[in-house]
Amino acid sequence: MISNAEQARLDEARKNGIPWRKWGPYLSERQWGTVREDYSDSGNAWDYFTHDQARSRAYQWGEDGIAGLSDDTQTLCFALALWNGADPILKKRLFGLTNSEGNHGEDVKEYYFYLDSTPTHSYMKLLYKYPQAAYPYEKLVVTNRGRSRSEMEYELIDTGVFDTDEYFDVFVEFAKVAPEDILIRITAANRGARAAALHVLPTLWFRKTWDGGQAAAKPQLSAAAGQGRTRAILATGSALGEHQLYCDDSAELLFTENETNTQRLYGMPNATPYVKDAFHEFLVGERRDAVNPSLVGTKAAAHYGMHIGPGESGVVRLRLRKGEVPTKEAVFGAAFDKVFEDRVREADEFYRALTPPKATPDEARVIRQALAGMLWSKQLYLLDASRWLQEHHANPLRGEPRIVRNREWYHMVNDHVISMPDKWEYPWYAAWDLAFHCIALTAVDPDFARDQLQLMLRDVYMHPSGQIPAYEWNFSDVNPPVHAWATLFIHRTNQALGRPADLEFLKRSFLKLALNFAWWVNRKDRFGKNVFEGGFLGLDNIGVFDRSAPLPTGGHLEQADGTAWVALFCQNMVELAVELAAEDPSFQDICTKFLEHFIWIACAMNRTGPDGMWDEEDGFYYDVLRLPDGSAQRLKVRSMVGLLSLCATTVVEPWQRELVPEVAEALAQRMQRMPELARAMHATGAGHRGVMDRGIIALVNEERLRRILGRVLDENEFLSPYGLRSLSKYHEAHPFVFRVDSQEFSVRYLAAESDSGMFGGNSNWRGPIWVPVNALIIRALLQYYLYYGDRFRIECPTGSGREMNLFEVSREIAMRLWRIFLRDASDHRPVFGGTSKFQTDPDWRDCLLFYEYFQGDNGAGMGASHQTGWTGVIARLMQFYGAVDPHKYLEGGRKALFRESVGAAVKE
User: Fold this and answer.
1) Secondary structure element (H or E) that encloses residue 568, with its range
2) Which residues, at least 6 apart from 858, have a Cβ–Cβ distance to it below 8 Å?
3) Nearest to residue 531, comparing CAs of 429, 602, 635, 455?
């Protein structure tokens, strides 16, 4: 390993248990409107707990804030509050539209950027852009409500509030002196042409744990003596021990309680005169009696009133640490800025080691901000499902008959820091998203990535039946089974880092994944025919019907994507079993079992004839609708559903065969007895070796691969200038239409947002580009390349006359993906679309956003704006292709892939 200070901290955490990750960005960015906070009769979480209520109403299951920081139990929380003197409310949390308010579902209406973070959070930097004019809350709600699903969303920048640059760039930085000694620097830069007032309120508070039987004692914040002009807030009475927040420059300290203002919300007298929204009332309402003159409470803030000249900045310095600062040491002083200089330099060194040497400065920026966004997107997720259900009078263990969501998940006790898809739009974990997060996170923190995968397999998450929870709106929904693939990826990454094999991790994961596999077979293979259902499977509106709802025709769907996912699951389990068989030969039997299950699935999926998934005329895989009368028909939508068949492809290296000789023999015997099996999948076995004597396990054979890729690489179908579309552009002029009695259902190519309300209407799989499935197809092409080498060449793009091998094809797709984020020939970034401010203003243009998905024709960002989660995989792709030599890769196989993909951090 190349040594640097941040890597040393990671090693200290792993080897010696030094708690460098104890404090981090673990607050949500939206706790209101979540399922956990919903105690309504209707189950309408958005309307039960609104943004307007959030400033006055104490949360039950977590906390939120701007640039939030907390310990890993979210006991003591820190975040930023601001007021420009014009807003109707104190800016304490990010504003956005609810699902019913937005014309494309929920959407945050703020501009904030995760500029930097190291994996131990020894250094973090966030930028929040705060208008100097009153924030246009009502205008955003009314205008978006008035727009149809066929119109663009109305964004904050469209209101004109930034047109004259009358706003503050508020930078929030954290630098750790030690695991529990954190420096905080807040810099507010006035970008306008006139001086402007700004109130900055760094806020410290305890999460409310003193009600509901969660804790016996109530902790306390109080004013404490500081050094010289320094003020301090003392935090006592919690399991964390004594902490102090030191505040520079004689700040005014304000105190209140983290308690609901029942008078404002419900017209009921408050239990205490000092309530959650006291700082709002103090500043905006000009009520000095709203705060506690005794300077005690469970919520406190340091009030800094600033008047900042044009082009100038105001700075606030704070220090949060366990215990007091030693008397001989200055709380602030020159050492304060020196620590920041050191941490920034160390972050530079850390990312330089991860960045391919040939990367341009713009490419390095994309990699760094993508990974920083991954690290900022951690959040403590709290849910004791049994208690939650009991509070809803719906706990089946207590014989309570009320039906509410997630009633069957009463075993769950979630209390961990988890990588979130988007801490505002999706402030809850999603199982298949998390697997992709872990792929990206291995670039910076493979230990954290490993622990994240194991969480979903723990008994307090995984259902006793073996199902992995999907997400809090419906834990019983079904996400694609990608955890085995991610587990294998992490294992290979650790091998590339030169670490000894973590067989305990592999074995634990394998056994739990086997339970999950059994769940799939028992619950989603309806008739034991080795074809699978699964519902929406994370692809929201991709089907002509809502695939998670009863079909309007009756009957059921045999899903091409569901079947392909389970085929890939089999292959991943085979590879994991091979690794374990090296130490325990008994795993050869289970390896054979999963290999044979793959073969049965391949036979079912590749069945020819009018009711099979493969359409010989079209050269494509489709879902099959099985009607109640026994008839069947293909739903001929050319989409990612059919392309996922490519992903069930795994090369078998000679060394793997040598580890499991009994498996190879069993496969040969099976093929000899049942030769028709060989025709049902890609040719395999001793007579069909590829480059370097490799074998292959794949659903799609060479002839079908060529036919599918002919469509994949056709710019009039799937191949966009910015990656692969989720639906063929063919359906723009030729929508697929299906009629049931008097009803008509259709699927039409939509490059941008969805025009339907299916699955909330805030995601669209009918045309846009999604990074995670692109990454899986890139992986599949690399697998095929390892088998075929330069022998397999194909036109790319289709009709261009330019032939490429499959490595070159995979690189072409990857380059188109990262082109979304890079400046193009006109010096614009496609991700920002037609928003001039982002394209031309030097204070905006390099602040990147990693959206949920991207417009299928021009690459503009769509959906959740901070879903760095799986879109962060782009950093991994840039690392790999920036460092890999295709010839060495072909010779070295997948181990070479992992050696190259960790970049310069690994010595050859």
Assistant:
1) helix 560-581
2) 721, 722, 751, 830, 833
3) 602
Tell me what the mean pLDDT of segment 477-500 comes to: 94
Q: Count Cα neighbours of 249 within 13 Å in the Cβ-side half-sphere.
A: 12
Contact call for residues 624 and 632 (beta carbons, < 8 A): yes
Distance of CA 47 to the CA centre of its chain: 25
Residue 714 DSSP symbol = -
Q: Is a pLDDT exceeding 80 seen at residue 902?
A: no
CA distances from 203 to 66, 71, 189, 261, 574 (A): 10, 15, 20, 18, 52
Which tens digits make up the pLDDT trace of 403-441? Answer: 999 999 999 999 999 999 999 999 999 999 999 999 999
Residue matched to tokens 């890729």: 709
Calculate ∠ Cα 54-57-62, nearest 5°: 75
Which residues neighbour 837 within 8 Å (Cβ) at sequence distance 6 or greater? 157, 162, 844
Q: In the 8-state DSSP scheme, what is residue 178?
A: E
Rounded to 5 degrees, what are φ and ψ at 172? -120, 120
**How far is the C-alpha of 38 from the C-alpha of 406, rounded, in Å?**
13
Do residues 266 and 234 lie in contact, with contact meaning Cβ atoms separated by under 8 Å? no
The Cα 463–Cα 519 span in angstroms is: 10
Contacts of residue 138, Cβ cutoff 8 Å, sequence gap at least 6: none
Could you tell me which of 409, 419, 366 has the C-alpha nearest to residue 388?
Answer: 409
**Torsion sign across C-alpha atoms 11, 12, 13, 17:** positive
Side-chain half-sphere CA neighbours of 528 within 13 A: 0
What are the φ/ψ torsions at residue 661 (nearest 5 degrees)? -60, -30
d(CA 884, CA 779): 14
Give dist(CA 628, CA 397) in Å, integer.
37
Tell me 350's DSSP state: H
Residue 57 DSSP code: S
d(CA 593, CA 589): 6
pLDDT in tens, 164-202: 999 999 999 999 999 999 999 999 999 999 999 999 999
The SS3 of residue 389 is helix
Which residue(s) pair with 233 in the sheet? 223, 245
642 within 8 A of 636, measured Cβ to Cβ: no
* Overall size of the chain counted in residues: 908
User: Could you tell me the sign of the dihedral formed by the alpha carbons of 833, 839, 843, 848, in that order?
Assistant: positive
250-280 in b/e form (b: 16+ CB < 10 A) is ebebbbbbbbbbbebeeeeeeeeebbbbbbb
Rounded CA separation 81/313 (Å): 17
Judge contact between 308 and 188, C-beta under 8 A.
yes
How far is the C-alpha of 8 from the C-alpha of 13, rounded, in Å? 9
Give the integer Cα–Cα distance in Å for 850 and 869.
8
Going by C-beta distance under 8 Å and a sequence separation of 6 or more, which residues neighbour residue 34?
Answer: 28, 45, 49, 61, 62, 427, 428, 472
pLDDT in tens, 302-312: 999 999 999 99
Check pLDDT > 90 for residue 787. Answer: yes
For residue 746, report the phi and psi dihedrals to the nearest 5 degrees: -145, 155
Contact of 787 with 126, CB cutoff 8 Å = no
For 576-624, how does the pLDDT look when each residue is reduced to its tens digit (9 = 90+)? 999 999 999 999 999 999 999 999 999 999 998 888 999 999 999 999 9
pLDDT of residue 756: 76
Rounded Cα–Cα distance for residues 408 and 397 (Å): 10
The single-letter DSSP state of residue 302 is: E
Q: Are 28 and 417 in contact (CB under 8 A)?
A: no
With a threshold of 0.85, does the pTM exceed it?
Answer: yes
Judging by beta carbons within 10 Å of its beta carbon (0-12, 13-18, 19+), is residue 240 exposed, middle or buried? middle
Q: Which of helix, strand or coil describes residue 518?
A: helix
Check: CB of residue 346 under 8 Å from CB of residue 122.
Answer: yes
Closest residue by Cα to residue 299 from 309, 308, 290? 290
CB 27 within 8 A of CB 69: yes
